[in-house]
Amino acid sequence: MIKMKITRLGKEFATLTAVPEVGDQFPEFTVKNSNGQTVQLSDLLTKTLLISVVPDINTSVCSLQTKKFNEEVDQYGDINFVTISTNTPSQQSQWCAAQNVKKMQLLSDQEQNFGKATHLLMSDSGLLARSVWVINSQGQIIYREIVGEMTNEPNYNQVLDQLNQN
């Protein structure tokens, strides 16, 4: 079993185990949309899916990451873009309104189903590990980046290059 350490400001924060790998089927999960309705993985796989996972939408790096992907949505009409965090649907809606984010769907893992299914839940904090996933319409992981230092942004160029290959 592969273990991955997550740090925050250089100090060990959590250890992840059994996180899905490229080539694996992405695990089934449920989250809530802004209306509180349940959304499943299968609902999102109408086309290639980019999942941007952030620990807390109301922090600077998470905000930057979500806004960056929101800016890219129009260039990739054949890809679903979503952000998942453990914030409530209400907190996510308030953030979207304040930041004028209208293109990217934010989904709430307040119940931690996504975090447990993917092994991205950092149990001591109840937060999700920052990561970016690209999943094809058959549910197979074709790109994965788990950011080892919580205060760092993902490698946007790498993930966008992957999207351009689809």
Can you describe this structure?
Keywords: Antioxidant, Disulfide bond, Oxidoreductase, Peroxidase, Redox-active center. Residues 20-166 form the Thioredoxin domain. InterPro entries: Redoxin, Thioredoxin-like_sf, Thioredoxin_domain, TPX, Tpx_Peroxidase_subfamily. This is Peroxiredoxin family protein. GO terms for molecular function: thioredoxin peroxidase activity. By secondary structure, the protein is of the alpha+beta class. It has one domain (3-165): 3-Layer(aba) Sandwich (Glutaredoxin). Helix content is 27%, strand content 31%. The chain contains 5 helices and 11 strands, in the order E-E-E-E-H-E-H-E-H-E-H-E-E-E-E-H. The protein has helices at residues 41-44, 60-72, 89-99, 113-118, 156-165, and strands at residues 3-8, 11-17, 30-32, 38-40, 48-53, 79-85, 105-108, 121-122, 127-128, 131-135, 141-146. The strands form 4 sheets. The chain has a 5-stranded mixed β-sheet with strand order 7-6-5-10-11. Strands 1-2 form a two-stranded antiparallel ribbon. The model has no long low-confidence stretch (mean pLDDT 92).
